[in-house]
Amino acid sequence: MWQELQPGDPQVIGPYRIRGQLGVGGMGRVFLGLSEGGRPVAVKVVRADLAADPEFRTRFRREITVARKVSSQFTAPVLDADVDGPAPWLATAFVAGPSLADAVSQHGPLPVRAVLELAAGLAEGLRAIHAAGIVHRDLKPSNVLLAPDGPRVIDFGISRAVEASALTHTGMVVGSPGFMSPEQAEGGEVGPPTDIFSLGAVLAYAATGEGPFGSGAYSGVMRAAGAPNSPGSCRNVWVIGSGSQPATGSTAAVSARSSRAVGRWPGSLARHRSISGRTSAGTRSRLAGLCTTR
Ligand SMILES: Nc1ncnc2c1ncn2[C@@H]1O[C@H](COP(=O)(O)OP(=O)(O)OP(=O)(O)O)[C@@H](O)[C@H]1O
Ligand SMILES: [Mg+2]
């Protein structure tokens, strides 16, 4: 869902009429907009300090050019962007459903079958991202949206632009400690296996309500990296995601393993569908109101 616009908020960004604020993240604010044809979009507006950094803009342009080539039923398509304006922005298709982070914090962990369906969808989305030559770099529960017909991966690749800026100015690595691979946390070379590691952590979160490494600073989180501290099904899910070692495995292997495993868990409820269905029904009716009053 979204909040009403406040005085001083933008009314128009590029070709989009802005109708609410979806949230605030590390890169800036995200607004709900309507396209000229009345389609809802999510418009991410970059923070002023990042916008002031030419290195950020160069990277942002490069990452968006590639991100626009990604095509999958499990990713939210990048629709438009303005890299050169005073406040750069990026528009993606609006996904009518909660983030995995919101779904789990409000309704608790998902049952194993739903987690495996999630795994299959996310792996397919990641495969398309990797096929375009992108490493997501920031796969985490808030970057997974649960649409009624399956998950959507968002924010792929763009954290690289923030990272380029942060590395230049502060020497800091960008990412989310509880979901980040060791090589990324240590500032090493990242590649598709980095995302597979994060996928395992995201799935463990979906299954248990907690990331496998807990939360907190990098060192404590990563000390646990070789031995996830969550028991039982969580560990199995983590292994499905990550292979037996961190930062190994492939999206194809995850898809195959999860699809096989889904087949072995017949009869359990795909709770994610009902949660997503309920939430997005509310979102859709609010959207319909917006579209008719425009
Ligand atoms: N395409 C989209 N459709 C619907 N909601 C979206 C979309 N893109 C982003 N959002 C929502 O906008 C909010 C802010 O997203 P944002 O990516 O800025 O924050 P974040 O993922 O929590 O943090 P980070 O900056 O580290 O990625 C989130 O609640 C997210 O669910
Ligand atoms: Mg995000």
Sum this structure up briefly.
45% of the residues lie in helices and 15% in strands.
List keywords for this structure.
binds adenosine-5'-triphosphate, binds magnesium ion, 11 helices, 6-stranded antiparallel sheet, alpha+beta, two-stranded antiparallel sheet, 294 residues
Bound molecules: adenosine-5'-triphosphate, magnesium ion
State Rg: 19 Å
Question: Strands across the major sheet, in which order?
Answer: 1-2-3-4-6-5
What is the mean predicted local confidence, pLDDT? 77
| Biggest sheet record | 6 strands, antiparallel
Number of helices: 11
> N-to-C terminal Cα separation, in Å?
18 Å
Number of strands: 8
Structural class computed from helices and strand pairing: alpha+beta
Beta-strand percentage range? 5-15%
Helix content: 40-55%
Topology as a string of helices (H) and strands (E): EEEEHHEEHHEEHHHHHHH
Return residue spans where pLDDT drops below 50 for at least 5 consecutive residues. Answer: 217-248, 261-273
Overall geometric form: globular
